[in-house]
Design goal:
heterotrimer, A mainly alpha, B alpha/beta, C mainly alpha, B: alpha/beta, D-Maltodextrin-Binding Protein, domain 2, 2 domains, 43% helix, C: mainly alpha, two-stranded antiparallel sheet, 21 helices
């Protein structure tokens, strides 16, 4: 049973239909433009629908998808990255970087000890690189803690 | 570009913390554009003339065609006596078309204009149209036979130049006028030289090079007088069409500063406009003198906006 | 003659001490990026764009730095191909076929030198080709109106999709996803928001840098987690480096032929360096007398594809600079760079901003010489860097990606969107959907739509106008052929064995 292509195809089909629906709501109040702002999105959605149908009807053999624990691992990475995006503004560069790169390092290398070292090393090393050498306006610690 | 916007916003936030002793000019666009130019030149000359104690700091705050800077000044810095913002015809055009998220022209104080870039209409070298009358007659006979190219989007200042000109010539059905908006004057020229558009409008300064190289032929300049360096190009007025489209270069300041401070800005800008340095900048950059200050300028802005609104309404751009 | 005086002007900018330093740094960093598996030229340049902005480099300096990185990555890709049988980037894939066998026969040093010289020859001649052909193409570009540009964009999508993927529907899907994303934001013509769902951050559209870094760099992290860094490179050994003059003489012909083929492949919009090196290798093999030794350590099998992919990298700059249509993933990223610098590529670029074009070309020439010097005698340094383990490298790259976007936009929304693109990139690669068309779609979507709408204004809504000129018709035919032909050719030309680790990810 081939699933990957079919699921993605079906998903994109829904997205394309939603896209068309959303495009119908674009305001057009126009004079000298026979095409208007809706036609091109319709065309794009049309291509997506066509391709989705091909993917559903003639799927390629499946790749090996992660399952169980690996899926959890990827989920952890995703949450870590998303949290990093939210944390860097309030908490500054050093702490989130050490934590998140430590997590990623552990996930890739699988050794907690050296991951801690990698996380701390990267946080400090990159901070020096960006802040001192490249001169980017990057705050090191949470606001009010100095740096 | 978006990332510049953010970078500029970040830069702005950082500079807010600095004690506000230095005058600051906000250029509502990326470095390299017309507003950036206005800020840098006016700022430099103010410093050179000793009108300000320190260097004038230029901040680029791009986004929404100047809308980001406008709303920023209106809502966050309306009492800041040290900030001024570069403006031009595009600013008033967008205000007229309500493109600044509901902001109106009376939410800031207009200081003045010290120079202008006359509009110009050009055709390809081998075009059958010899003068503006030929072109206008062709449009009147069959509007679909003439496509105008310009460097601004539909409804932008280049488009309005064409519409104002045709409106003044007595052409009624402005909705029929074909216009394609490109990214800047240079692209519009390429399309005209390639024969895809029959005529092109833009600011004189951005077309100077192409006129001199002979790629295109100017048929009318949209100023009161013939432009310096282009004395053989007749104005639209001379050809019987009473229209003037100057892309003026000026500044506005926040609304809630004191009247004395406003008057100081007007005086300072006037001194810049009269300076040797500014005359030189204008010659080097193909600008024409266009000096309006203080109350007169406020009136000018209001009239300009009213006219733009009328045309925009006529073509269905605004309700 | 005009070319020479222009070039002199370019050199006067590119040869200042400051830009020279930038070029050297760029070459060095680029070679490392190219050599490290999983970090290709597209990735490398994309990561560095935001950082070079935050550093406040001016347009020409940024251009010099990043094109040096680009060329450096093209050189660097061969190092891990030869030593580890892992191509550093997709164009270097062909180099593994004979390079790795050479290394196993104890001729790693020779293979590195031959491939380094071949890269130099390919890149140098292609840069000269760029100098000669680009101004010519720039003049032809006056014949390009809205209909022609629309057809040209179609051609770029079709050939990129047709050649770059084994499934036409998936390539088209990828392009359409990119185009769909490009529509987000304010419609330039009417000023009305489209697909923003009231989200203020989307008003200015989706930033292509966010998409590029997400699709390439962040997606890579997910892959490495999945493989537990199995492909990380540890413990590389290399003997003394000597210049094998005899082998260089033997392979001269292969280098020149590879250059020619690669350059032409590069000039075709959408084709790019992978195709260049593939065709160069296949071409060399088909005319060789000693066919049977190909794949078993024939130096010509190293020289031809390396010359081919570097020549294609140069060739791909021709349509990018003159028409604004990139020929490959990496040139798409370079186009993003130019647009961010407020430089609009196109026919007028050569007339209006000659200092930009010619200092770019001059810096390419300088970069080549620097790279040859770096990559032949100093190759050992890069080999050392190859042994950085993935569990340090990948987290580092991810953090650089975040900081790059953060220092530009300062917004969590954009970083979250970047992570989202990372997930999209992971899923797409799992499904064998190419990601480069997405980037191309985001980059070109608005221009493509604008040109369609302009064409319709000019023709009063008559769609046949799109086929109204010989150039447009020719481009449409080429586009259809480029899309359809690979379906049939694929059966004839079986792809060579894919190396164990498939990095089609950083396809060029």
């Amino acid at each position: 049973m081939i699933k990957g292509d079919r699921i993605f195809g079906a998903f994109m089909l829904v997205v394309a239909l939603g896209y068309i629906l959303s495009a119908r709501g674009i305001e057009t109040s126009f004079m000298s433009d026979p095409v208007g702002p809706r036609v091109f999105p319709y065309m794009v959605a049309g291509v997506v629908i066509l391709c989705s149908l091909v993917m559903i009807l003639r799927p390629d053999p499946d790749e090996e998808w992660p399952a169980g624990p690996m899926l959890l691992q990827l989920g952890i990475a995703l949450v870590a990255l998303a949290a990093y995006a939210e944390a860097i503004t309030p908490l500054g560069f050093l702490i989130p970087t050490a934590v998140v790169s430590g997590i990623l390092s552990w996930q890739i290398g699988g050794n907690p000890g050296r991951s801690v070292v990698a996380g701390l090393g990267l946080a400090v090393g990159l901070f020096v690189l960006f802040r001192v050498i490249l001169g980017l306006g990057l705050r090191g610690l949470p606001a009010g803690w100095g740096f | 570009m978006k990332q510049w916007t953010r970078a500029a916003a970040a830069a702005l936030l950082m500079t807010v913390a600095v004690p506000a002793t230095a005058a600051e000019c906000i250029a509502p666009a990326n470095p390299g554009g017309g507003w950036d130019f206005t800020c840098r030149q006016i700022g430099r000359i103010m410093t050179e003339l000793g009108l300000v104690p320190n260097m004038v700091q230029v901040t680029n705050l791009a986004g929404a065609g100047g809308g980001v800077a406008y709303t920023q000044v209106v809502s966050n810095r309306s009492e800041d006596p040290e900030v001024f913002v570069a403006a031009s015809s595009s600013t008033t055009t967008r205000l007229a078309q309500n493109a600044f998220a509901g902001a109106t022209a009376d939410e800031v104080r207009w200081v003045g204009s010290i120079g202008g870039d006359p509009g110009v209409i050009v055709v390809a070298q081998d075009s059958p149209y010899q003068n503006l009358t030929d072109l206008v007659e062709a449009v009147k006979a069959d509007p679909s036979s003439v496509a105008f190219a310009g460097g601004s989007a539909v409804g932008g200042f280049d488009h309005l130049k064409v519409l104002r000109m045709l409106d003044a010539s007595g052409f009624e059905d402005l909705r029929q006028v074909k216009y394609i908006g490109l990214d800047g004057g240079a692209d519009a020229i390429t399309q005209t030289v390639g024969g895809f558009a029959q005529a092109m409008t833009g600011d004189l300064s951005e077309i100077t090079g192409f006129i001199k190289s002979g790629d295109v032929r100017p048929i009318a300049v949209l100023s009161e007088e013939r432009a310096e360096g282009f004395e053989d190009v007749p104005t639209a007025k001379e050809q019987g069409i009473d229209t003037v489209s100057m892309n003026w270069r000026g500044i506005y300041v926040p609304k809630d500063i004191s009247d004395e401070r406003y008057q100081e800005w007007v005086d300072m800008l006037q001194q810049v406009g009269e300076s040797e340095e500014w005359q030189q900048v204008m010659t080097e950059n193909g600008l024409e003198p266009y000096s309006v200050f203080g109350e007169d300028f406020q009136t000018f802005v209001n009239e300009d906006i009213a006219e733009t609104q009328e045309i925009s309404r006529e073509i269905g751009l605004i309700q | 003659m005009e070319t020479l005086s222009n070039l002199a002007m370019g050199f006067s900018t590119a040869l200042t001490f400051y830009t020279l330093i930038l070029a050297i740094i760029g070459c060095f960093v680029g070679t490392i990026i190219g050599a490290l598996p999983g970090l290709g030229p597209s990735n490398g340049v994309a990561l560095l764009i935001p950082i070079s902005f935050s550093m406040g480099l001016d347009a020409i300096s940024a251009l010099v730095l990043l094109t040096s990185v680009y060329y450096g990555a093209m050189y660097g890709g061969r190092i891990s191909s030869i030593l580890l049988n892992i191509p550093g980037d997709e164009p270097a894939m062909m180099t593994t076929l004979d390079g790795y066998p050479m290394a196993r026969q104890g001729k790693a040093a020779e293979a590195l030198v031959v491939s380094g010289v071949a890269s130099f020859v390919g890149a140098l001649l292609a840069t000269i080709g760029l100098m000669i052909f680009a101004p010519y193409l720039a003049r032809v570009a006056y014949q390009f109106g809205p209909a022609e540009y629309f057809a040209l964009y179609m051609l770029a999508f079709c050939t990129l999709g047709g050649i770059g993927s084994s499934n036409q529907a998936k390539a088209a899907m990828a392009a359409a996803i990119g185009l769909g994303i490009a529509m987000i934001g304010l419609d330039k013509t009417t000023g009305m928001p489209r697909f923003t769902f009231g989200e203020l951050h989307l008003m200015d559209g989706v930033d292509f840098l966010v998409a590029i870094v997400g699709l390439f760099a962040v997606a890579e992290v997910f892959f490495f987690i999945e493989s537990h860094g199995k492909d990380s490179a540890i413990g590389v050994k290399l003997g003394k480096i000597l210049v094998p003059w005899k082998m260089l003489r033997q392979t001269t012909g292969a280098m020149l032929r590879g250059t020619g083929i690669g350059f032409v492949a590069g000039v075709l919009p959408g084709a790019g360096a992978s195709l260049g090196s593939f065709l160069a290798y296949m071409g060399e093999k088909s005319i060789a007398k000693d066919k049977s030794t190909f794949g078993k350590g024939n130096p010509k099998g190293v020289a031809a594809p390396e010359a081919g992919n570097n020549a294609a990298a140069g060739g791909a700059l021709v349509p990018m600079l003159t028409l604004g249509v990139p020929g490959s993933g990496t040139t798409a990223v370079l186009l993003a760079l130019l647009l961010t610098l407020n430089i609009t590529p196109g026919p007028l670029l050569f007339a209006e901003r000659p200092e930009v074009v010619w200092s770019l070309i001059a810096s390419l020439l300088v970069a080549n010489v620097v790279l040859l010097l770096m990559n032949v005698p100093m190759v050992k340094i890069f080999v050392k860097i190859l042994s950085v383990p993935a569990w340090v490298l990948l987290p580092g790259v991810t953090m650089i990606a975040f900081v790059g976007i953060y220092s530009l936009t300062g917004s969590s929304f954009d970083m979250l969107m970047m992570v989202g693109f990372g997930v999209l990139g992971y899923v797409m690669r799992k499904l064998n959907i190419p990601t480069v068309p997405v980037i191309l779609g985001i980059l070109l979507g608005n221009a493509m739509e604008d040109n369609l709408r302009r064409a319709m204004v000019l023709s009063n809504g008559d769609f046949w106008y799109l086929l109204s000129s010989p150039i447009a018709v020719g481009l449409w035919i080429a586009a259809i052929l480029g899309f359809v032909a690979p379906i049939f050719l694929r059966r004839l030309l079986k792809k060579p064995p894919v190396p164990t680790h498939d990095p089609s990810l950083n396809e060029d």
